[in-house]
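Listing S7. Sequence submitted for prediction.
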Amino acid sequence: MKPGETLERLLREQRAALRKGELEALAKLVTPLERAMQDLAPGPGKTGPGPGAEVGPQVLERLRRCAAENAVLLEAACAGLKRARALRDRGAAARLMTYDASGRFAPDVPQGRTLARK
C-alpha cells in the first residue's frame, strides 16, 4: 500500500472513531498517523525524494480534505468534552440548600434522623 493510501485509510478510521466517540481507538491511531505522515515526505537522514514524491496532486487534495473534515470533528469533540467537564464540575460544586421549619435558610444539613413521626 502506498503512503498516501495508508494515510487516507487512517484518516477515515479516525473520522469513524470520532463520529462514534471511540476515544481509545483515537488514541491508538496517533502513532500510525504520525508514521504515515512522515512517510509522505523526505526528512532528516533520508537521501533523495521520499515515498511522498509519488503522491499526485489529486491524492494530496483528497488527504487535505479528509484531514480538514477530521479537524472540524476533533474541534467539536474537544468542545463537547469541555462542556461535559464544566457541567460535571458545576454539579459537583452544587450544594444542597435546605430550609428550617420557619422558612429560613439552613446552611448545615442535619445529620442522622431527619423525619419525625407523629
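Caption to Listing S7: primary sequence and predicted C-alpha cells for the chain studied. Helices lie at 3-20, 23-39, 57-93. The first strand starts at residue 98 and ends at 99.
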